[in-house]
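Final report, closing paragraph on structural work. Over the funding period we assembled a curated collection of sequence-structure pairs, and we close with a single example.
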Amino acid sequence: MPDSHSFATRPYDLVKEFVVALVAVSLLTVGLAAVFSSPDEPAITLSGWAKAAPADVVATATAELAGTSVSATYGAPYNSAAEGQKVLGLPLQKWGGVRIPVDSADLVLGPLATRTDAATKGAVAGWRAAPEATRTAWATAYGEALAKVTDGDPAAVAAGDYGTVPVLAASFLDTARSGGLEGQLVSNGTFYGGDQTRTILLLSDGAYLEDTARAQQLGGDQWGMMNETGDYPGQPWMWLYTFWYQVPPFSTSDNADAQVWALMMVLTLGLMFLPLVPGLRDLPRLVPVHRIIWRDHYRTHPRTKG
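Its predicted structure, as stored:
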């Protein structure tokens, strides 16, 4: 047996190879991440919303009190304000019923009821004591006044008959800034209190959530999609569902949600019953792509007749 010491030798720098490999892989990782990765954006919070767009919070609170926000006029499952979306004239949304009743004004008054300062307590009491028509007139007038000033700044609103709405909206903004609004809205009477419905409705009623989404190309008429970091496969599995919103007639329809749902149900049923649909079930035989993929198998196991 030859002696290993009799073979030729040459110096080998293991540390150098390790460093070169580490640098190369690191550069490749950073480069690919810069090109193909999704931004790891933090979740939007009510506190962050209040700090980034305080005027939007005030305007949204006013709309909730006036009953003119998107959620207040949405219909089922939150209220009976509208029939909702239809498919072929069938009011599917209305048929679902009001299963998650949400009073838009309570999105504002509920959290404020826990405050102890005299101004807020007096404003809440004054609001509840006023007739419904008066409350609606106050909130509507204040909302219109906010829309007329630059950037919706409450400090620039002209004097008017707004009742207790300015105080309620300002207190609501303070509560949101402090971070106390999340807990008030998420708590739903259960032990864990993890229902985010009211939080999402409130955010959706404002402009900040949509503006943030559009900045990331995530608007309803945009093609962007953001992967959910650390939760594979994240959102990409929804591509087929969201795809239909980008093409006519869904992209221009007021009933797009219901129509896309109906289409996806039809496609799902088609996939489920594919083996039973004449013509479609014969595609593997008529277009034998599988025989190309498994050509080695079919070469050694030729198909026999009979």
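The mean pLDDT is 87. The first helix runs from residue 14 to 36. We thank the funder for supporting this effort.
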